[in-house]
Prior knowledge:
By secondary structure, this protein is mainly alpha-helical. It has one domain (4-201). Helix content is 72%, strand content 0%. It is built from eleven helices and no strands.
Amino acid sequence: MLEFAELKQNAMLLTSKLTRSNSQYMGCMGFFSALLPSAGSLNDSMIIEMIATSFDMDFEANLFFYLRACSNNTLVKPHEFTEFKNQALRGIYILVLSRYSSPMSAYVNKNFIELLQRDLGINSLTDLSDEVFHSSLTALSQYCSCLYENRNKDPMTTDLNNRLGPMIQGDIEAARNSRVITATSWYGDYCGMLCSLWTINKP
C-alpha cells in the first residue's frame, strides 16, 4: 500500500496519464466508437485529482477541524491526520473502481482501471482487506461531509461538491455494502456514518 505522499502525487497526475492513454487507445479504435472510453472516466479522474489537490489548499484546515470535531480525542495528532487523508484518498479510488465492475464497463475503461489499480498497488478490490476497504470509505464519507459544509467557501469546493453529486453518501454506502461487513467493523463504520449524517443535517 502506497504512503500518502506517493499516492497523492500519483492522484494529481492521474488525469494527464488517462488523457495520454486514451489518445493512444482512440487512435487504434477510432472506427469502433462504442468501445471508446466513457467520458465518465475522465470526470472521475478529475475528481480524484481535485481531492488530492485539496490537501494543499485552505480546505485542509477545515478538514482538520472537522476531523477533530468528530474525534473522541480533540487532540488529533499530525500522523493521525495524514492517515485520515490517506484513507480518504484511497476511499475515492475504491469508490471509482466499484463503478466499473460490469464486464462491458471494465472492458471499455480498461486503461483507466489499470491506472487506478496501479496507484493502489492491487490487481482488484478483493486484494484489499475488509478493514482497509471499510475504513477508507468511512474516511471518504467524512471528507465529503466536510466538503459539503464548505461547498460555498471557494470555487474549488463548489466545483468538487458538484462533481461528486448530491447522492455521494448513498454511492459510498452502496460501495460499502458490496462487501460483507464483519462484526468487528460495524462499530467504526456506524460511528463514521453517524458523524457524517450529523454534520450534514445539523442546523
